[in-house]
Amino acid sequence: MPLRVGYVREHFCSPLLQYEAEDKGKTFTLVECPSGTGQLISRLTNDEIDVAIALTDALIAGIAKGSKAYKLVGSYVNSPLKWHRELLRVYVRRAVITGHDSPYKQISDLQGTTLGISRYGSGSHTMAYVMALQQGWATDQLKFGVKNDIRGLLDSVNDGSTSAFMWEWFTTKPFADANECRFIGAVPTPWPSWLIAAHPERTSPAELKTFLSSLTLHVSEFQKSEARAGPSVEFIKKTFGYPEEDVKAWLQTVEYTRDCTQIHSEVLSRTLSVLQQAGAVTLRDGEKIDPSEFVNRNVATLIIPEDEKHGVTP
């Protein structure tokens, strides 16, 4: 039976879509999850998908909070990205978006307001805590309005039921160009944006390794310099309808993993540290996280720096 792979239909998934077109359902089928990472995690939990390509912070937060529905099995996008041409290159910057005619002009204006999220446990949810940390707000005072997907979030910032929400800049830019919303800032995060997770029992390590190895080949082909100069641009334009100028700007900054079967332990530790500081994840006093608890090491290779190996389960 083919793997059921959950994904969000965004430009990041271009190599996956190319793989699907070649595979024709022999290895896997795609299950679209338009509400994002929260929906992906829910579908993993409810046996609706076997694999999810989802946001790093929400996946790690879910496991840290006790989810047994999945473990990490691979990496997907680990570049520094640039969500806006005037912004510095960092691992990820989530755009902060408000309504076109809303009274909010900058992030500081949002304190005490109701923030839009797609659902609890999503990237838009965990990143609200990170934004509060960076702004010096009390994270236990945050208020949320659940709006399911990008359409619901856009409607909410324009009807006033929420003040703002966070989403990836490039995905949201067409709506800003159409005067449906405005960018009022960005929130930098010190981790790669996308990881791959899978249920620990529903699929065999061999099946997952085959999927990840083939995905690596398509990722490698997609990000070759000659592909970025032409074929990859045309694929995104045709598939998503984005302007060529925007596609080229994004391709100049994005970097996919070189090996989808590898996960770096520093990604886990760095992400957990920030999520703890932000109040999105709470550990008991003295509790330490073993990276092996997050990763299915029958599938993925956990890359551990030499000076950290003594604290990790072999």
Give a structural overview.
This protein is an alpha/beta fold and 314 residues long. It is 36% helix and 20% strand. It has eleven helices and twelve strands. The chain has helices spanning 14-23, 37-45, 56-64, 123-135, 150-159, 169-177, 205-222, 225-228, 231-240, 244-251, 265-278; strands at 3-7, 28-32, 51-55, 71-77, 92-99, 114-117, 143-146, 164-168, 181-189, 194-198, 262-264, 301-303. Strands 2-1-3-10-4 form a five-stranded mixed β-sheet, with helices on both faces. Helix 1 packs across helix 7 (205-222). Residues 80-92 have low confidence and may be disordered.
Shape: globular
Number of strands: 12
Structural class: alpha/beta
Kindly estimate the percentage of residues that lie in beta strands according to DSSP.
Answer: 15-25%
Main β-sheet, spatial strand arrangement = 2-1-3-10-4
The whole-number mean of residue pLDDT values reads 89
Run of helices and strands: EHEHEHEEEHEHEHEEHHHHEHE
Sketch the major β-sheet. Answer: 5 strands, mixed
Approximately how much helix is present in the residues?
25-40%
Distance between the termini: 32 Å
**What Rg is obtained from the alpha carbons, in whole angstroms?**
19 Å
SS summary, helix count: 11
Regions with pLDDT < 50 over 5+ consecutive residues? 80-92
